Predict the structure of DNA polymerase-3 subunit alpha (Gram-positive type).
Amino acid sequence: MLKSYVAFDVETTGLNPEQNEIIEIGALKVRDGKVQERFMEFIRPTESIQPAITELTGITNQMVEQARRRQEVIPEFLDFCEDDILVGHNVVFDYSFMKMSALSEGMAFDKNGIDTLKIAQKVHKDMKSKSLGALCEYYHIENNAAHRAYHDALATAKLYQTLAHFFEETDPKLFQPAALNYKQKPVMHATEKQIGLLRKLMQNNGIKITWNPETITRSEASKLIDQILNGAKS
């Protein structure tokens, strides 16, 4: 069992690390099996948090309105991580958001990690759900604030230690840290159809948004179109 590592979790505005943003980071630094430091921070996103995300996480727009921006928080979190192994539940999800955020700030974030979800999928094949909540319930690990970053990170650290206690001796390879990989998808330029629709919607709704048809990406155009259509419906 690792005696020193960083367990972490992020809450986000959606599921796509190239379109959505981190709104909360929670992490704990373990040294010699004990929590030495904690990292808990909201991040103020560039767009509003949707009601579905608030319902899932409990994080409201009011909670993040005084928070610092990504540019300030991400470098501090990278310093916090030092050269540690990362531990997470479905860790590649959290890592992908952190990787994209770091890249956006011109910083590297190349890490090795241990995924408690992958371990659970191997050692608990018969369990219907391998979610963090289901595993915490199975092992009687208390998590009174599920879907809040720090509490999920703490629960993940406890889950990792529990799984290692029961299964590492019989399957040590399963608990070996592995390189975390996330490759940024190639940027696709907006289609002519998207650009035409965007211009038409802006004209019809009297909306003025600064954008460049030469550089706008497919995802950016799609997001703008959705925002205009949703605004027109409300």
User: Anything to note?
Assistant: The mean pLDDT is 92. The CA atoms of residues 30 and 134 lie 24 Å apart. Residues 192-233 form one domain.
